[in-house]
Specification:
The structure is a homodimer. By secondary structure, chain A is mainly α. Chain A contains five helices and four strands.
Amino acid sequence: MEAGGLSDPGRGAIRAVTARLRPEVIRPRVRLGEQVLIGPGKIALLRAVAEHGSISAAARAQGMGYKRAWSLLDELQRSFPVPILQTAAGGSKGGGTAITAAGQALLDHYDELERACRAAAAPVLDKIGRLLAR
Amino acid sequence: MEAGGLSDPGRGAIRAVTARLRPEVIRPRVRLGEQVLIGPGKIALLRAVAEHGSISAAARAQGMGYKRAWSLLDELQRSFPVPILQTAAGGSKGGGTAITAAGQALLDHYDELERACRAAAAPVLDKIGRLLAR
């Protein structure tokens, strides 16, 4: 019996939990081959830059180091032919980073992508939920 | 200038490639919190079991070791209250593993989920494609 040791189906915890599946289900990624060009992590970081006005504050808000944040944003920028971020000349506050109109358009399109996918997925997730719960 | 070193926007290669974005874009994952219950890797493996009739053949087809394949299928099974795989008693061919009706339903639902998400995403991806290409 090749799969003889596979765990017994877990009847208990999952049933209670099926109703909570939907909100987490779709976090779109735009891929090119195996490379993720645009995904939920980079988008959250870009949104944090827009909110906080600097990469360092956005990194703190996302619980990551500055170098990691900078590297992710740099990756994201490389996919776009126009700047998605702009740096402010350092005045009394030492400059900062804002997003451009193209960066804001990216955030808006990603939100729309997420909403569209979630709406389309909902009826199918109901079916999968019934499979998990029966 | 906090982000002064960010790479220049990459105007060349991406433009040619925008048209290829869509087919790869949506690979749905069903999450519960941070845990991925159902994702494209496990589904591909389950489909390979259905095609090849054994976990070991499915593992080979997916380019992974038997232990890794078994572990992924075991994780997937733990989310379901009914068996998604069944083992055959070992006759001359040494037994094997087939998928159950519930396993087949999972594959069908996942296909439907993928189709639904891709259809919903298409018009938004056109917008993102224009952002990548302009």
